[in-house]
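Q: Predict the assembly, please.
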Amino acid sequence: SQTIHQWPATLVQPVGSPLSLECTVEGTSNPNLYWYRQAAGRGLQLLFYSVGIGQISSEVPQNLSASRPQDRQFILSSKKLLLSDSGFYLCARSFRPNTEAFFGQGTRLTVV
Amino acid sequence: GDSVTQMEGPVTLSEEAFLTINCTYTATGYPSLFWYVQYPGEGLQLLLKATKADDKGSNKGFEATYRKETTSFHLEKGSVQVSDSAVYFCALSDRSGSARQLTFGSGTQLTVLP
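A: Predicted assembly structure:
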């Protein structure tokens, strides 16, 4: 199985509150893992990617951070949410460069 | 840097109509090309792919041909169904070996009316 689990599916959080979104993947070890954000009616924005435990690359400087404490676990966090953090967050995996990515079902975050 | 340009949506068609969604790209070298589909409230699913020039990817009646000379990867379907209503994303993956992976287009919303 190459399943990607994301939770929660939906989340409503007040401005200034912390955030933790979790993604776990099954199957082949040492996958490349990704966090994307999709704002309403917009395309996908790559936020972070990771090629291994503890290795995080950030694409867009902002108040979000990511961590990879285990091979198959990727966490997206924030200490203080902003209204502009609202969106649909997608976790994805790939096995090697230049191959397709597989996506989880996403988390719909609404910051109020 | 790499980029993908898709036709602006939304696109509204009647059932059984012919579909074309244009996609052109800019990339260094010879990227792999993909079409993803996103149904409402869900993640993205890989629809089809092509890894070299003149390859044709196909799935569920959808087709796209990798055209190196025109740097295009247009999505087509001969007869759309209501169930094809979704957002379609064109994407590329370069061959630099970077883990940064996919570059996506902005997506095209398709609505098929019965």
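The interface with chain A takes residues 31-32, 34, 36, 41-46, 49, 89, 93-102, 104-107 of chain B (CB under 8 Å). The first strand of chain B starts at residue 3 and ends at 6.
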